[in-house]
Amino acid sequence: MRIAMAVGSVASVGLAGVLCLVLLFTWLMIRRLQSAQRRATAEADRTREWAEAQAARLRGELDRREDRLTEELTRLRTRETGLAERSAELDVLRDGLRAATQELAAERLRALERAAGLTAAQARAELVRAAETEAEREAAVAVREIERRAKSEGEQRAREIIVSSIQRLAGEQTAEAVVTVFRLASEDLKGRIIGREGRNIRAFEAVTGVNLIVDDTPELVQLSCFDPVRRETARLTLEALLADGRIHPARIEEIHERSRAEVERLCVRAGEDALLATDVGAMHPELVRTLGTLRYRTSYGQNVLGHLVESAHIAGMMAAELGVDHGLVKRAALLHDIGKAMSHEVAGSHAAIGAEFARRHGESAEVVHAIEAHHGEVEPRTVEAVLTQAADSCSAGRPGARRESVESYVRRLERLEEIAGAHVGVSKVFAMQAGREVRVMVQPELVDDLRAQVIAREVAKQVAEELTYPGQIRITVVRESRATEFAR
User: Fold this and answer.
1) CB of 317 within 8 A of CB of 300?
2) What beta strand segments (E) does 160-205 contain?
3) Do 299 and 234 lie in a common domain?
4) Burial class of residue 233, CB neighbours in 10 A (0-12, 13-18, 19+)
5) When comparing pLDDT for 29 and 168, which is higher?
6) Separation between Cα atoms, residue 309 and residue 122, nearest integer Å
7) For 362, which of 306, 334, 354, 412 is 20 to 30 Å away at the CA?
């Protein structure tokens, strides 16, 4: 019991001591917080006082600076006023000086006019006229010298290019002829060709579209047709019929179909060979086929397809010498006479027909223009067209290329000049470009512009009626107008 009471007493005393300690710690913390608050308040007061002192100092500094700026602005305004006054004085002086200068210039001009006897406008016009005359004279001298040098160098260079191209080509010198005569193994075959009451020959002509002429010439018959492809098809048909021995209308139709397919194949093959020989690249199949048909056509004894291949080679060589795209030039030269394959079927010159045909089948504008301009019917506007013209002339004009004799050629040129010279008022006539152009010089006092047009039309009509020639011939009537003055 006593022990328990002693423990309780000790516990009571310990709890009170702890409570006292807690209260003491709390009081100490409160005193410390109060002390810190007082210090913070004092620090804030000191900071506020310092800030107010700084603000007062800055306000004083700003006031002093504002006073200085006000004084400076006043001085600047005073100076600006002084400058404005001086500027006004200078303007007055400048106006006076300008007036004095103008008066002095006018007085000097009047003195010069009195001394020269001319007004200023007259003197200026005279000076300008003299300068223009001198400039025109110098320009004319320079232009004449440039033209002379360009013509001399151009002719020499052109001769070198053409001669080099022809020498490098080394084409054949023989002329080919279209086969129009068929030789028979014996005279008895003529009766089999004619057939009973002429039915075989009538069937042959109806199927092939070619006239088969059987006359008294021994062991020969003639095939007559304007279309060379039809003529070649008929020749192959007749050859196959005679080799087979069975000649009757049904067999004629069968053999003709086979021969036409063979000719078609040969035409395509010839066109492809021409493309390979000239290396111009791919081309529309219809152009290739039409190009191949020209292997059966000749112009003055010259094979047209061979002429085109030869022209393409010459044009390519000249283009390479000049640094022009030789592929495009060779393509134009290869196609320039393609209109001859259909010129008997379509109205117009072969140049215009060929140009339209090439345009329809996707050829470029440069190639089309070269085709239509290669005979001068259209003025050539590109280098390709000029080179195509030159290559065509070189191929057709080389020795042995065509059969036309020198005598007939000269007679045609003489007749051209005679036809044009027979008109009243004509003074001189010149046949140019191998007879493809005629220049007619007329007397201006006898022939006016309207009469010149009439002469050109009449000469062209008479030439077309009387002469035979390839392509077209241009008739140019030149009427000169002269202005004459006498200097005294």
Assistant:
1) no
2) 181-183
3) yes
4) buried
5) 29
6) 69
7) 306
Average pLDDT score, the chain? 80
Residue at 45 is within a domain? yes
Using DSSP's 3-state secondary structure scheme, residue 425 falls into: coil
Phi-psi domain of 79 (left: phi exceeds 0; alpha: psi -120 through 50; beta: other): alpha
Distance set, CA 293 to CA 47, 171, 266, 395 (Å): 116, 21, 8, 20
Q: Which residues contact 380 (CB under 8 A, 6 or more apart)?
A: 369, 370, 373, 386, 389
Q: Which of 365, 397, 429 is the last residue of a domain?
A: 397
Percentage of residues in the chain with pLDDT exceeding 90?
A: 3
- Name the burial class of residue 54, with classes exposed (0-12), middle (13-18) and buried (19+) by CB atoms within 10 angstroms of its CB: exposed
Q: What is the per-residue pLDDT across 198-210, written as a single tens digit (0 to 9) for each?
A: 888 888 888 888 8
Q: 302-303 and 426-432: which strand pairing?
A: unpaired
Domain extent at residue 255: 181-397
pLDDT above 60 (res 313):
yes
Q: Which residue has the tokens 């036309």?
A: 404
pLDDT in tens, 394-447: 777 665 555 555 667 778 888 888 998 888 889 999 888 767 789 999 988 888
Please report where in the chains the tokens 């007939």 appear, as a residue.
408
State whether 337 and 222 are in the same domain.
yes
Per residue in 354-368, pLDDT (tens digit) is: 888 889 988 889 999
Alpha carbons 399 and 406: distance in angstroms, whole number? 11
